[in-house]
Write a structure and sequence with these properties.
Blueprint (H helix, E strand, L loop, with lengths): L5 E12 L2 E12 L3 E6 L5 H8 L7 E6 L2 E2 L4 H7 E4 L11 H11 L4 H14 L15 H11 L7 E5 L7 H16 L3 E6 L2 H7 L2 E6 L2 E6 L1 H8 L1 E7 L5 H12 L4 E3 L4 E6 L6 H10 L4 E7 L3 H15 L29
Parallel strand pairs: 3-8, 3-9, 6-7, 7-8
Antiparallel strand pairs: 1-2, 1-4, 4-5, 9-10, 11-13, 11-14, 12-13
Helix pairs in contact: 3-4, 5-6, 8-11
Length: 345
């Protein structure tokens, strides 16, 4: 029998600020060497969860283990095992890239030649070698973000926490960060990633946990979550009068609730029956005399999964007061997280 080793494990994790509940019982299981994406609106609990898992704040209920260490009972051991990169790059703009990493190496206990070698190694790995001796204030935002990530890797953390790592970056810089993250996971580092970019989670995460209202409302692989809401059928009609006819046909074929877009003359509906084909849809529309200019059957995006899952919950709890954000995760299939630079002991 195979036993899965979890780099991050939380059970019933809770965090309250007075009457406001940022986390309402978070269960999260992230296997070693995997990437886990925490998804959620602002205030869903992502940042709170990360703060607890990185020992920056204490939970008010439940328990959490990171790299096998209890975050409350043995926070120092947790900090030695993790790396953390926050939402804002924390490099010193008055220092060069090389000086920044050597400073972080000293703060993490790597002195002399060992610290210099590690700094040089990370500069080359991050594609920053040519700019290493320029002051960081002259670097682009993407370069500073990569330097920040490199600083989080100084101690070779077992678990790396990345909080919104590519916010505000251009596509090229984002692709570079993604390549670094995937390479780390391939080498055995566990990565716990919070993001609002659904494409990022789709590309990087072995598993995702969708958070809303302080809870994990769904967990699994990106592909598995997409299967839960089914494919999407779309029909574009020739006139507003034809929308109702197209909706009736798609409703009959799918049993779903068609969404009408009067501006784009489009009807969309979820398809849960994997046997339904596009030719069958076209024949049904034609047989009903519905004039269409386009029809398609496509898999759902992770954005649609996210909106479907979190939208239903938001509608059910409109009265919730916005709270300090905090993560909540459930038990994904493959997930991992690596500590941050600033938390290394």
């Amino acid at each position: 029998m195979t036993t899965t080793t979890y780099a991050v494990l939380s059970e019933g994790l809770e965090k309250s600020y007075g009457r406001v509940h940022a986390l309402r019982g978070l269960d999260l299981a992230v296997p070693e060497g995997s990437v886990c994406g925490l998804l959620g609106h602002n205030g869903a609990g992502k940042t709170t969860a990360v703060r607890i898992l990185t020992t920056l704040t204490a939970p008010t209920g439940g328990r959490a283990l990171v790299a096998g260490h209890d975050v409350v009972r043995d926070p120092a051991a947790v900090r030695r095992a993790i790396g953390v990169t926050g939402q804002q790059a924390s490099v010193d703009g008055d220092l060069t890239g090389r000086e920044n990493l050597r400073l972080f190496a000293r703060l993490c206990g790597l002195r002399g030649s060992a610290g210099r070698r590690r700094a040089d190694e990370l500069l080359e790995r991050s594609g920053l070698g040519d700019a290493a001796d320029r002051v960081a204030s002259t670097w682009s935002g993407g370069m500073r973000r990569r330097l920040d990530l490199a600083a989080g890797l100084i101690t070779r953390p077992r678990v790396l926490f990345l909080d919104e790592p590519t916010t505000g970056l251009d596509p090229a810089s984002r692709e570079h960060i993604w390549a670094v993250v995937r390479a780390l996971a391939d080498e055995g580092t566990t990565v716990l990633l919070t993001t609002q970019y659904l494409e990022e989670a789709d590309r990087l995460a072995d598993s995702v946990a969708v958070l809303a209202d302080g809870r994990a409302v769904a967990t699994g692989t990106p592909a598995g979550l997409k299967e839960r809401i089914g494919a999407r059928a779309e029909a574009v009609v020739t006139s507003p009068e034809a929308l109702a006819g197209a909706a009736a046909v798609l409703d009959r074929l799918t049993g779903g609730r068609p969404e009408l877009d009067a501006e784009r003359l489009t009807v969309r509906v979820s398809v849960l029956d994997p046997a339904l084909t596009l030719p069958r849809i076209i024949r049904a529309l034609d047989g009903a005399g519905v004039p269409v200019t386009d029809a398609r059957l496509r898999p759902p995006t992770l954005d649609e999964v996210f909106l479907r899952l979190t939208g239903a919950l938001t509608a059910a709890r409109p009265e919730r007061t916005a709270a300090r954000p905090g993560p909540t995760a459930a038990r994904p299939e493959r997930t991992a997280a690596r500590p941050e630079r600033g938390t290394a002991a």
